[in-house]
Amino acid sequence: MAHQSPCGHRRRMTGDHPPPTYLVTVQVNNRFARKCLARLAEMFTLSRSEQHDPHITLFGPFTLKRCCDPESLLRQILPLSGGNPPSCTARLDDALILRGRRGFAAVVRAFPDEQLSGIATRIRECLLPHTRSCTWIDQLPGQRIFHVSVGFGLRHQRAREILDFLETIPAGRRGPDGIGRLGGTTIESFRLAVIRRGALWKVFDFPTGRWTGRAEFFREDAEEKTLEAFRKRMGFQLDRPRFSPGDAAFVISDLHLGHENIVTYTSRPFPDAAAMDDVLIRNWNFRVKPTDTVYFLGDLAHGRNARRAAEYLSLLSGVIQFVPGNHDTGVAHTGVSIEVSWKSQRFLMVHDPADAPPDYPGFVIHGHLHNNQPDEFPFLNMEKRRVNVTAEVVGYVPLSLDELVEIIGASPDGARFATHADARAALRLA
Fold first, then answer.
1. I need a labelling partner for 182 at 20 to 30 A (CA). Which of 1, 69, 136, 265 fits?
2. Is the domain of 279 the same as that of 209?
3. Quick one: 149 and 215 in the same domain?
4. What strands lie across the sheet with 186-189, from one edge to the other?
5. Rounded CA gap, 398 and 124, in Å?
């Protein structure tokens, strides 16, 4: 007869089971960061017990006092009474080595945005009075170092090897292994996840503002619904025409239609290239009338599954002035640069900002660099008089020159805005 543990026998007799352990996290939904972390795990042969699904821990691990209803506590935290953000973001910074309960961890430090910081504070304030046990980090405010783990439970030397490798990656570049510098990357999170007894238990979906369970989270169409709700809340997916009065002019760059890898490379909020193409083409035609002018600054389509550029152009409304990009071979174009004066503002439009003269007296509008170097190439850099209009940066909708002139006129000297949405929010433009 098998040996029977006296503790296990006592639990069955008395019903005195140990309380479940919980962990509250936000998932890392940035596809580029997830891909880099997966490649790092392969490179350093991290076992499944030495890596997590990418996330940032906000609170825990912890247990709750008896008679606490965890679902009721979670509903006190979210949804927020004043409305929920469509997502939360954090900016990745330097790599660190942290000492954990089971050895050392190689991590990338994360600095949450104001919304995520507020939610983390709210979680701590709501849960701490009801905890039966928790880590010392959560007992006092300001002790937690928010981070994304690369690997944990490691010997110090192995953690140091990972750290040394991360520090050799130059900013804004990716090696042949597909790994890029994580520091400086802004990661988006669409979901807050509650882990119970080591397994996913409850999920709060920021775009829809709903709590869901494990079964709904793992449905095949769950991610697509979350991404669609996010795009609509952010204005990245138009559902009706938004034409400007009169004959308007617009600018945008780097649609990359048909390009599967661009979804990962720039973390576009689409499940695949087909869904991306459908939204980008519809957005264009809901914004641009047949009599409007669009200055398109290169890289219309790319990838083995992309259709011919002429086919895509036939689907797009307006009079298109085409500046070729590095993926536009064989496409008829207006010129390698276009100079435009609009409402007394001079613009030089190019694909690559390196092709513009450094002493141009107006603003240089460019594409090419996507959203991967937001410090050096943000949407608007007033000091260097540059505007980045790649699709990710302007919100996947052609930007009107009327609005661009308004933003420039409202921006103080030295202002820098990473995205078009950031500029509108900071300047309080309706």
1. 136
2. no
3. yes
4. 147-154, 103-112, 88-100, 186-189
5. 42
Per-residue buried b or exposed e for 80-110, using 16+ beta carbons within 10 Å of the residue's own CB: eeeebbbbbbbbbbebeeeeeeeebbbbbbb
pLDDT, residue 9, reads 47
Please check whether residues 210 and 317 belong to one and the same domain.
no
| 364/318 Cα distance (integer angstroms) | 23
Structure tokens at 214: 């494990």
The confidence score (pLDDT) of residue 172 equals 63
Instruction: Report strand pairing: 363-366 vs 380-381.
Output: unpaired
C-alpha distances in Å from residue 215, one per residue of 15, 22, 75, 116: 28, 18, 19, 26
Say if CB 366 and CB 253 are below 8 A apart: yes
Q: Is the domain of 268 the same as that of 339?
A: yes
The SS3 assignment for 175 reads coil
What is the Cα–Cα distance from 228 to 239, expressed in whole angstroms?
Answer: 11
What one-letter code names the amino acid at 413?
D
**Amino acid identity at 44:** F
Tokens 């510098």 map to which residue? Answer: 181
pLDDT tens readout for residues 246-300: 999 999 999 999 999 999 999 999 999 999 999 999 999 999 999 999 999 999 9
pLDDT of res. 180: 85
For residue 186, what are the β-bridge partners?
A: 91
Instruction: Give the Cβ contact number of residue 306 at 10 Å.
Output: 19
| C-alpha to C-alpha distance for 95 and 302, rounded to whole angstroms | 34
CB 152 within 8 A of CB 76: no
**108: amino acid identity, one letter:** V
The answer to whether position 393 is within a domain reads yes
Pick out the chain residues at pLDDT < 50.
Answer: 1-2, 5-7, 9-10
The enclosing domain of 63 has a CATH number of 3.90.1140.10
Domain count, the chain: 2
Note whether 326 and 214 are same-domain residues: no
**What pLDDT does residue 297 have?**
97
Q: What pLDDT shows up at residue 359?
A: 93
Domain boundary among 217, 233, 249: 233
SS3 107: strand
CA distance 365 to 353: 8
Instruction: Tell the residue number behind the tokens 């390698």, with chain if given.
Output: 336
